[in-house]
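Pipeline run #58 for the internal structure catalog. This entry was flagged by the ingest filter as a single-chain record with no existing model, so it goes straight to prediction. Upstream metadata was stripped on purpose; only the residue string is passed forward. Reviewer on rotation: M.T. Logging verbosity set to normal.
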Amino acid sequence: MGGRLPHQRQGAASGGPSPAWHNRSHVTSRNVDPADILRIMEDHVPFNRLLGMRGESAGDGRGVLVLPVREELLGDVRRPALHGGVVSSLIDTAGGVAAWSALAANESVSTVDLTVDYLEPAGLGGPLRAEAELIRKGNRVCHVRVRVTQDGVLVAEGRGVYNIHRRAIE
């Protein structure tokens, strides 16, 4: 299958792989698991690959992601401190993984609101670790809380609201 997931197809317009999970009408609740969510997040979202995000765990409304830091992610070279957008992207993605892990197979999420509190600068130390927990799943949105640490120090907290998208299962 050339590294593609079973629910991916070759894209005609771009000549490259084209994700097909946006059309999940063929998916049933019996063939989606948290490992699929992490695989999609890591391997099939180009921005996440660019940053180097890795999934540690997902399931039951929780998600843990790790982001190795490198100089290219600096936003303030004088400190040095990572760019805040890197931290907020990690929070957003971890929150999405936690929310998605609590959904049915025909559901997915997109971010509608994200709040980030930067508590300490993240630097060129150890990897960032984001731990996300679903606070509430309603009929239309999920609320998630995320904590980001580096070398055991809490560097940021975030809260995300994710819209639930539903598709018919055949």
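catalog note: The first helix runs from residue 34 to 43.
catalog note: The longest strand covers residues 153-166.
status: ready for reviewer M.T.
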